[in-house]
Amino acid sequence: MAAVDCSLPLSVNYQEKVRPFIDLVDELRANGLDRDVSLPSVVVIGDQSAGKSSTLEAISGVQLPRGSGIVTRCPLELRLKKSQKKDAPWKGCIRYVKNKKDVRFDVDEPGNVGDAVKKAQNDLAGTTNGISDSLITLDVESPDIPDLTLIDLPGIARIAAEGQPTDIGQQIKDLISKYIQKKDTIILAVVPCNVDIATTEALQMAQEVDADGSRTLGVLTKPDLIDPGTERGVLQILNNEKYKLRKGYTIIKCRGQMDIEKGMSLEEAMDKEQSYFKSHEHFKSVYKEKKAGVRTLAGRLSTELVGQIKNSIPFLKEDVKTKLAATRQDLQLMGIGVPQEPDKKMLFLTDLLRHFIDDLQKTAKGELTRVCLKRKRTNKRLFGDVRDAFKRLERAMNKMMPVSTDGSILQEIKNAIVENRGRELPRFMCYPVCEAIIREHLQKFREPASVCLQEVSELVESVSTALATAHFQAFQGLDWEIKGKMNELRMMHEKKAEESVDQIFAMEHLVFTQDSIFIRSVTEMGDKVVWPIGHVTKQDDEGKEAEKMLMYICSYFKVAIRRMVDQVPMAISLHLLKNLTEDITSQVNLMAAYPDKTLQLLEEDPDSAERRAMLEEKLKRLMKANQDLARFN
Ligand code: GDP
Ligand code: MG
To answer: Which of 134, 330, 491, 556 has the most CB atoms lying inside 10 A of its own CB?
Structure first.
C-alpha cells in the first residue's frame, strides 16, 4: 500500500478521496450513531508508558496530557481535520456529554490541549484516579495534520496506584475490549522496542479479537532506547517475520522525556526523526521501505481507515435500515403520547379503548388484530388454541367409549344382569340395568369437560392480558383497571360456563335420544363392537346377553358423545368468548362514557415517557444517518 506523505500539500484528488469518508463517520458518530451500530474507527491501545500519547501527539501535532500513572482516563476521540488553506489558523474544541447535557469549550492553542483534556476528564471521571467510559471528543483543525480520527484509550495498567480501585486493571481491559472487539475497528497497537514484545498485553489483547492481525497495525516506539545488539530482533518484527500481523508494523521515534523538558517542538521532533531513520545503521532500510516514521504512519492510517469505511458502508446502510424499521415499529407500538389539551385527551382515550375493544372482539372471533398485524404476537392464535382444546376434548371423550376402555365393563354389566334378574325370562334385556350403567359411565365424562373449560379460561386470560398489555402498557393505571375488570368478568363467566356444563350433564342424565337416531346408531354399530386385543368373551348366556347390552350402550354413547363434544364447547364458547367479550366491551364503553375517572388513569408512567423519548431520539439519529449514508454508493 502506498504511503501518503502528509508533509506534502495533499492533492485535490486525495482530499476528495479521503475527507468525505472520514467526515461521514465523524458525522455519524457525532450524531450518536455508535450507540446503535458499530462505526469504523482507529483505536490506539498499549501498555502504560508504551508511547501511545507520544504517538498521537506526533500524528496530531497537539500536546496531550502527560504524567505518570493512568493519564488517559476516558476514551478520547481525536478528530483531525486538515485545513484546506495552508495559512488557516489552528482550531481546537472539546466536547462531551455529562448528565445528558452537551458540554463544549474551545481550546485556543495546541499547547493547551493537555490541560483542556484533563479538565474534561476530571469532570467525567472525577479528580481521583478512576476511569470512565464516557467519550471526550477533541476536534482539531490545522493545515499540518492528516485527515484522521483516532480514539485514545487508557493504558493497560498492571497494578493499581494509590487511591485507585483495585480492579482498575480489569476495568481498563473491559473498556478496551469494548472498543477493539468491533469488527470494523482498526487497532493501533503501540509497543516499545525496548521491551520483550511477547510480554506486552496490548498485542495479546489485539490478538484475542483479531487472530490473524488483519485489522491490527503494530507501532514500535522508542527505537533510541533499544538495547544495542537487539536491533536484529526489531528488524525481524518490522519485516513481519516474527509476531506477524497482516497489516505489518511501523517504527517511529518520538520525543523522549529530555526532549520535552528542553522544549523541543513536535515539528522539530519530526524533522529529527526523519534524519534519525535516514542515517540509522539498522533502520535506514526499513525507512526506505516506508515502514518507519510518524508521517508514514499517519498516511497509512488515513488510507486504512478510509478503506475500512468504504468496506463498511454497505453493511452500515443495511444495519441502519433494519434498525430504523425496528425503531419505527417500537414507537408505533407505544402509540403516540397523550395529548395535553382536554378535548384531544378525551379523543385519545376513546381511541385507545376503541382499538382495544376492536382487537378483543377480533381475537374472540378469530380474526386478525391490529396488534398482531404490527408485531407477530401469538394472540391471533387464541382461536386456534381454543379449537385445539376442543379437539382434545373430542379425542378424550371418544376414547371413553365404553368398549374401548377395557373388559371390566362387560363384567360389570354381567354382574348387574345377574344381580337384578327378576321374574323375566332370559334374553329379555333389562332396561333399568342398561340405563343405570349408562348413567354411571356418563359421570366420567364430566372430568374432560371441566379440564377443557379450565384450559379455555386460562387461554382467554393469557390472551386478553397480553392484549391489554400491548394496548395499555404505557398507562399503568388504565392497564391495571382494565385487567382487574377483565379478570372479574372472566371469573364470573367461567362460573356460568361451569353451570351450563352442569346443565348439559343433567340433561344427559335423562338418557334420551330420538328413536330414529338411536336405531341408526345401532345399525351403524351392527356387530362391530371391536374388543381390545387380548380380551376374551365367555360364551355363556349372561356373557352373550352382556355383550348385546354393551353393543346397545355403545350405540347410545356414540350419540351422546357426538352431542357432548359439540355442546360442551358451545357452552364454553358462549360464556367465555361471546358473553365475556360483550361484557368487557360494555364495561370499557362505560369507562369511555364517564371519562372523568378514566382520564386520571391515563397518566403515562415515567418509564414509558422516557422510553418514548429515547426511541424518538433514536429514530431521529437513524433517519439522519440514513440520509448521510444515502450519498455514498
Ligand atoms: P503512554 O503512557 O503510552 O501514553 O506513553 P507516553 O507517550 O506518555 O510515553 C511514555 C514516556 O516515554 C514519555 O516520557 C515519553 O517522552 C517517552 N517516549 C515516548 N516515545 C519515545 C521515543 O520514541 N523515544 C524516547 N526516548 N522516549 C519516548
Ligand atoms: Mg498516555
So the answer is: 556
Pair (370, 294) in one structural domain: no
Locate 32 and state its grid cell: 450518536
Q: What is the CATH number of the domain that holds 586?
A: 1.20.120.1240
Residue 6 is assigned to a structural domain of this protein: no
What's the CA dihedral at 492, 494, 498, 499 to 10 degrees? 30
CA of 253 to the centre of ligand 1 (A): 9
- Rounded to the nearest 5 percent, the helix, strand and coil shares of the chain are 60, 10, 30
Q: What is the pLDDT of residues 206-256, one digit of tens each?
A: 999 998 888 999 999 999 999 888 889 999 999 989 888 889 999 999 998
Residues 256, 224 contacting (CB under 8 angstroms): yes
Q: Which of 129, 254, 260 to mutate to test the pocket of ligand 1 (most atoms within 8 A of CB)?
A: 254
CA 304 to mean position of chain CA atoms = 31
Domain of residue 196, CATH code: 3.40.50.300
The model's pTM: 0.58
Is a pLDDT exceeding 80 seen at residue 58?
yes
Q: Are residues 377 and 266 in the same domain?
A: no
- Give residues (CB < 6 A) around ligand 1: 46, 48-54, 66, 155, 221-222, 224-225, 253-257, 260
Domain assignment of residue 333, yes or no: no
Do 348 and 313 share a domain, yes or no? no
Three-state SS annotation for 333-381 = HHCCCCCCCHHHHHHHHHHHHHHHHHHHHHHHHCCCCHHHHHCCCHHHH
- CA dist 286 and 251 (Å) reads 9
d(CA 554, CA 530) in angstroms, rounded, equals 11
Domain region containing 256: 12-324+624-630
